[in-house]
Amino acid sequence: MAEQTKTKKKRSSTIVHSRYGCAVGASYTVAAIKGGVPIAHCSPGCVEKQYHLLTFNNGFQGSGIAAGGDMPSVNFGENEVVFGGVKKLDAEIQSALKIVKGDLFVVLSGCSAGLIGDDVSSVVKKYKELGYNIVYAEVPGFKGNNLYGHEVVVKAIIDQFVGDYKGKKRKRLINLWSEVPYFNTNWRGDLTELKRILEGAGFEVNVFFGPHSRGVEEWKSIPKASFNLLVSPWVGLDTVKHLEKKYNQPYLHIPVLPVGEEATSEFLRKVVAFSGLDSSKAEAFIEKEAKEYYYYLEHFADFFSEYWFGLPSRFATIGDSAYNIAFTKFLADQIGLIPVRQIISDNPPAKYRKELSELYHNLSEGVSAEVEYIEDGYIIEQELEKVDFGNSKPLILGSSWELDVAKKRKALLVEIGAPIGDEVVINRSYIGYRGALTLLEKIYTKTVGG
């Protein structure tokens, strides 16, 4: 019995095929800001691992002008562990400011600096007093994963760069907070679609990452917004609560990313109702988008009715909280597929899990699912081998880690989240009106293609 307990403890302390990075992976939160430059105060191995998981082997997304192999880094070594790394950090900041053209520099200190107690704030303070846009964030991996680090970095920029504000707010302007850049593989396309539909409904939208952001100028306008809109199950809640206290900004939390016409139209109506704005522009936009959406869906129905006997009817979803519930709800409610195994792999904090699990109740009329929280890829694979997909073709929504078990089960695998090592993602989206159609194309192309 003692040996069994010992073995169990040993298994629970090791994660095989992890689906997230460590907190210093938030360097890619900075890289996703137009003009943002991360400066890594950690070992070279830490930065390299985050690059491969979050960008290279996750849709080959690219990393911008100052990330990947070009990211300024102290390259913490034995000498810094013994004697401290602040002098080397000082020199690295000087070099970065001279060589890299950026609008905002963010120093991210990792495990080594955190363990020996490097005073990063004093080094950064010196350059801030010289007039540089520079902040720091303590993101050692022993404190959490890259989702935790993402919020630490966002709040650091708000407090140290955006600063205090006492001016007026603009009624139509809202701050959009949603997916984690790079970690959520389709973040660029998804933010593009969210911004598009919100502007179509009559809003001005601050979006802080990706091609449709104005960069640091947009961050400076955060306090001017009338409210914060969070479209995420739990990542970002600390941020919007912080903004509520700092700028007296209310927030609207919509935990499920909208996928498909019904969910997206309902989403827009919720946002408009919360804002108190006239709904006429939003309703006209919804009518236009719905008409186009159902035009395409009507033609897709020809294929669906002809080949229904060979199509999947049951599916499993493995992925981070945001993508998992969004795609599970869409396939169950709008396409009529049966969810048989839902596994969340991003290790959400315990305080959020009850409400997160409740999102899987009443996915559609008479349809609910139980969700499990598993980080270990080996255990996930074992669980998928036991799933009863009935007599139809199995459908698995997951990552590249599910390739082997999909082959064993002769299942269709649609890769929805990190890591994705055999697809190139440029501006793809699976959410909103347009993204839902892309998701259907992806699933059913896999079906006819074998």
Strand segment tally: 12
Strand arrangement within the widest β-sheet reads 10-9-8-11-12
- Give the tally of structural domains: 3
What's the SSE pattern?
Answer: HHEHHHEHHEHEHEHEHEHHEHEHEHEHEH
Q: What is the third-level CATH name, the topology of the largest domain?
A: Rossmann fold
Termini separation comes to 47 Å
Shape: globular
Q: Which secondary-structure class do the elements indicate?
A: alpha/beta
The major sheet is characterized as: 5 strands, parallel
Average pLDDT confidence is 91
CATH superfamily of the largest domain: Nitrogenase molybdenum iron protein domain
CATH architecture of the largest domain: 3-Layer(aba) Sandwich
Low-confidence parts: 1-11
Strand content: 5-15%
- What's the total helix number? 18
- Class of the largest domain, according to the CATH hierarchy? Alpha Beta
